[in-house]
Amino acid sequence: MSLRKSAFSLAETLLTLTIIGVIAAMTIPGLKEYSDEQQYVAAAKKSYTVAQSATMMAETKYGDLRWWPWSNTQEIKKRYKDVLNTMEITGDSYTYKSFGGSGSSGTINNTDWFQTTDGMIWKVAQADTGSSGVGAIYIDTNGSDLPNVVGVDLMGYLVTNDGVYPMSTGEWSCTNYVMAYGKMPWLTDSSYSSCPQDSSSNNAGSGQSGSKSDSTN
Length: 217
What we know:
Blueprint: H1 10-62, H2 73-82, E1 86-87, E2 94-97, E3 104-108, E4 114-116, E5 121-126, E6 135-140, E7 154-160, E8 163-166, H3 174-181
Antiparallel strand pairs: 1-4, 2-3, 4-5, 5-6, 6-7, 7-8
């Protein structure tokens, strides 16, 4: 009795490789999108933790934040820099875009912003008139690296008498959504024309539109 070795023919091998290629073409983009989203979410959550920690440390050093000179932006900036590991912003100033990446929202530079050694770029300012907070913190979670878009790598936080909370109204409300749900569906779903206004998950950050650009000076 003779034994015959079985083997794939060239046609079968090419067919298998074609099928693998089709499956890869269908799945790899989705996997990359998910990976990118998770990186942005992780960076956003880190920025929230650091913003809370820095505020508590600064309050320990400078006293009750309710009595800070919030209208003096440079003094507030100095107080945060005193409790963080900072450096000058590397490279030239750059603009960041509004939600969806359509249009410039403001310019990031060494005058109003500062960079921490972990690569994040900060701005601290007085809260908008009529908001529930005393101050505001804006963070570019990955520095000058793209995409520089509000709701993706730019987050906004409201400093209140009770602590720091994600902004939950206006364009910066994406911050609150990301903290509550751990995702950014607008990265792949074009039906999102604006950030979700979901104050139910954390209404402490309401009342601050974080109206970008010059209004955050």
